[in-house]
Amino acid sequence: DVKVTQSSRYLVKRTGEKVFLECVQDMDHENMFWYRQDPGLGLRLIYFSYDVKMKEKGDIPEGYSVSREKKERFSLILESASTNQTSMYLCASRLGLDGSFYNEQFFGPGTRLTVL
Amino acid sequence: KNEVEQSPQNLTAQEGEFITINCSYSVGISALHWLQQHPGGGIVSLFMLSSGKKKHGRLIATINIQEKHSSLHITASHPRDSAVYICAVIWGETSGSRLTFGEGTQLTVNP
């Protein structure tokens, strides 16, 4: 079974702090994704990476950066956390072979981040 | 930009009822996912389909590409089906293709 793990289930940080959210997958997937989920807005893509050291902006990249130094790990970084970044953050991975749009995404359990 | 709309937003049913959740999208897509999210956040994929119909246990998903519409049906609903059901469409056919999500339908099945 594919397993996608995230470093924390719950996290509380203060405004201005640098925040790292870590995601690890164990199935050698090429593609990895970071989403945030807010009531009334659904899931929105922040960044995705289709291979090591590759990254692409999603729909809402402002205030975030990412790092993909190893295939299994995709990190989301909030350089200076703000209260409007309080949200549920979900990581996902997907096998990225040809025809990858046919491959399902596997989600991590989520990190509920509160910025005070 | 592809928009994805789900209806209803909230649905309450009695155990045993037949349930339908609908999803409409605005432009052509490659495929569509139905996802389930239980309290606590974890999301699992139920179906991915690009045409026709798929069935798994009490769950049935259909898609009509021409009408840009998909439905998720649950037969003989049970309280453990209570969850948020999310429709997501895939636009693009490259390795960079990604999902656009609907807002989700909160389903509550009462015993």
Describe the secondary-structure layout.
The complex is a heterodimer of chains A (116) and B (111).
Chain A: E1 4-6, E2 10-13, E3 19-25, E4 31-38, E5 42-49, E6 56-57, E7 64-70, E8 73-78, E9 87-94, E10 106-107, E11 111-115
Parallel strand pairs in A: 2-11
Antiparallel strand pairs in A: 1-3, 3-8, 4-5, 4-9, 5-6, 7-8, 9-10, 9-11
Chain B: E1 4-7, E2 10-14, E3 19-25, E4 31-37, E5 43-49, E6 52-56, E7 59-64, E8 69-74, E9 83-91, E10 98-101, E11 105-110
Parallel strand pairs in B: 2-11
Antiparallel strand pairs in B: 1-3, 3-8, 4-5, 4-9, 6-7, 7-8, 9-10, 9-11
List key phrases describing it.
heterodimer; A: 116 residues; mainly beta; seven-stranded mixed β-sheet; four-stranded antiparallel β-sheet; 11 strands; globular; B: 111 residues; six-stranded mixed β-sheet; five-stranded antiparallel β-sheet; 0% helix; 59% strand
Low-confidence stretches of chain A: none
Q: Describe the sheet with the most strands of chain A.
A: 7 strands, mixed
Through-space gap between termini of chain B: 41 Å
Whole-angstrom Rg of chain A? 13 Å
Given helix and strand content, the structural type of chain B is mainly beta
Structural class of chain A: mainly beta
Number of helices of chain A: 0
Termini separation of chain A (Å)?
37 Å
Overall number of strands of chain B: 11
**Could you state the order of secondary-structure elements of chain B as H and E?**
EEEEEEEEEEE
- Compressed to H and E, one letter per element, the order of chain A equals EEEEEEEEEEE
Principal-axis shape of chain B: globular
Sheet-strand content of chain A, in percent, reads: over 45%
The percentage helix of chain B is: under 10%
Mean pLDDT of chain A equals 90
> What is the count of DSSP helices of chain B, taking H or I runs of 4+ residues?
0
The profile of the biggest β sheet of chain B is: 6 strands, mixed
Taking all residues together, what is the mean pLDDT of chain B? 89
Global outline of chain A: globular
